[in-house]
Amino acid sequence: MTPSPLLFLLLLGLVGAQAPVDLRTAAAMAAGLCKTRPTDIVFIVDSSRSVRPSEFEQVKVFLAKVIEGLDVGPNATRVGVVNYASRVKNEVSLKTHRTKAGLVKAVTKIEPLSTGTMTGLAIQFALNVAFSEGEGARVKSPDISKVAIIVTDGRPQDNIKDVAQRARDAGIEIFAIGVGRVDMSTLRQMASDPLDDHVDYVESYSVIEKLTKKFQEAFCVSDLCATGDHDCEQVCISSPGSYKCACKEGFTLMDNGRSCSACSNSATDVVFLIDGSKSVRPENFELVKKWINQIVDKLDVSDSKAHVGLVQYSSLVRQEFPLGRYNNKKDLKDAVKKMAYMERGTMTGQALRYMTENSFNPSQGARPGVAKVGIVFTDGRSQDYIGDAAKKAKENGFKMYAVGVGNAVEDELKEIASEPTGEHYFYTADFKAMTQIAKKLQINICQDEDPCECDSLVKFQKKVEDALQALTKKYILFNK
Q1: Mean pLDDT (10-residue bins), the chain, 480 residues
Q2: Which has the closest alpha carbon to 116: 152, 87, 149?
Q3: C-alpha closest to that of 120 among 67, 144, 95, 84
C-alpha cells in the first residue's frame, strides 16, 4: 500500500525539517512524492564470460528495479542500456522506449555476450554513440543530467583511465559498481568524485539488488510543492528539485517572488497589538516576534503602501514604534526583534483604547483615507473590560482581527473581531490546531464599492496560516 501525501507530512515531521537529505528522500519516496530530475541515464553492463547466465539475470532484475523508481518519459528521464564484453552492443537507446513497461520488457530480453572484458571500449562507445543526439540524448544543458552506471565483475582488458576522464569532462557523471573479484582500482579510475558516492561494491550478483534503493534515492527529487517545502502565498508550480510561485487570477506577484497583491497601489496602516503578559513566557514571546515578522514578510512595506506599527501591553501599554517609522522590511523586522518582553498582567481593554486613541491618530503616523487594520494577539483572559474599547475601534472603521492562543477566551476574541466575526478571529490551543482552523476562514479587507482599495493584507488568513505552518514544522507550541 502506498502511503498518502498526508502520511508523508507525518514522516517528514518525524525526521525533522532539518533532517539529513537521505531521510527526507526516503519519506518522499514512501509517499510517492518523488520525481527524477530530467536525466539521460545509460547502463553499461559487463556480460563477459566470467558473468554466468544466472548472474546476468540478476543484473537485469537490478536494472529493472532501478528503472521502476525513475520518472520515465521524454521530458523526464530517458534510459539506455549498453551491453559489452569483447565487443559492444547498444541494446536500448535513449530514444527507443518512453515508458517503464517498454524499458523493463526490453531489459528482460538482453542476452549475455560471453567473451572478454573491454570496459574502456564500452565507455568510449557510450561517449560517442549512446550519449549522442542521434540515439536520443538531449542537448547538453544545466537542466539535463547525463549519468552512466557501469556494472562489472572483472579487470578490464583495455585502458579505462583516459576514456573515463574524457567522459567525465564531457559532463557525464559515472557510477561504478563492482562485483566479486573486481579490480577496485579500476572502479575508482572510472567513477566521478566524490568516490564514496560513486563507487559501490557487492560480494556477488546475488546481492546486487541491495543497491537498488541507493540509486532510486540518488535520482529522487522531492516535489517541493506537494511536500509543502515552499513559501508561496497562493500557487506553487513544481519543477524537479525546485519551484516557483504564482498568483491566482486578479492578483499580482510581488517583488519578493512569493507574496500576492490584489492591487498595485494598495496602502494600509497595520498595527499589531501584542499581549506581553507573564503567562506568555519568554521563550514563547520570542516565537510571537518571529510570527509577526513572518507576516511582515508578506506585506508590501514601503513609504506609499503598507505601514506597520507595534504596541505591546500587559498591565501597562507601551508603543514599541509608531506607524511609518520604518518603511522597509529589514528595519521593521529588526525593530520587532528588539522588542523586550514586559511580563505582568493582561489589560486588553486598556490596550484597545490606546490603539484607538493613539496608534491610528495622524499625530502617530496614521494616514488619512488609508485602510486601518488592527491585529490583536493574546494568550489569556483580559483583566479589564474590553467591550467599549472593542466597539469603539470598529465604529471608527478599523478592520479588527483577533488571534488567541492557549487560555485566550473565545467570547473576548469575537467581541474584538470585526463582522462577520467568524472570518475575523482565530483561536487555537496550539499552532498545529490553528493551521487547521485558519484553512476554514476567509479574510478580506477590500472595500466592496472599490476593489482597488485592497491592500497587501488581502487574504490575511492565508498569510497567518503560512506563518504558523512554518513554526509548526519546528514543533514549537505555546505551552501553558
Answers
A1: 39 38 44 66 96 95 91 90 96 90 94 95 97 94 91 94 96 95 94 93 91 79 68 79 74 76 68 92 84 79 91 96 94 95 94 95 90 90 94 92 87 91 79 45 40 45 58 46
A2: 87
A3: 84
Q: Omega of the bond prior to 420 within 30 degrees of 0, cis?
A: yes
Distance, CA of 337 to CA of 169 (rounded, Å): 49
Please report how the helices 21-30 and 5-15 are oriented relative to each other, as an axis angle in degrees rounded to 10: 160
Angle 134-136-138 from CA coordinates, rounded to 5°: 100
First to last CA, the chain: 40
SS3 at position 431: helix
For residue 68, the SS3 value is helix
Report the C-alpha gap between 119 and 42 in whole angstroms: 14
Is residue 374 a contact partner of residue 273, using CB atoms and an 8 Å limit? yes
> Half-sphere exposure (CA, 13 Å, Cβ side) for 97?
20
CA distance 185 to 436: 56
Residues 6+ apart with CB under 8 A from 6: none
Measure the CA–CA gap between 350 and 361, rounded to whole angstroms. 16
- State the greatest distance between any 2 C-alpha atoms of the chain, in Å, as a whole number: 94
Helix (H, G, I), strand (E, B) or coil at 110: coil
**What proportions of the chain, in percent to the nearest 5, are helix, strand and coil?**
40, 20, 40
* CA atoms of 42 and 174, how far apart (whole Å): 10
Closest CA to 34 of 337, 240, 325, 267: 240
Q: In whole angstroms, what is the distance from residue 77 CA to residue 456 CA? A: 41
CA distance 152 to 178: 5
- Neighbouring residues of 140: CB distance < 8 A, sequence distance ≥ 6: 146, 171
CB of 42 within 8 A of CB of 90?
no
Q: Which stretches of 136-223 are DSSP H helices?
A: 161-169, 184-190, 195-198, 212-218
The model's pTM is 0.46
**Are the C-beta atoms of 49 and 62 separated by less than 8 Å?**
no
Query: CA 472 → CA 21, 31, 288, distances in Å?
Result: 20, 20, 13
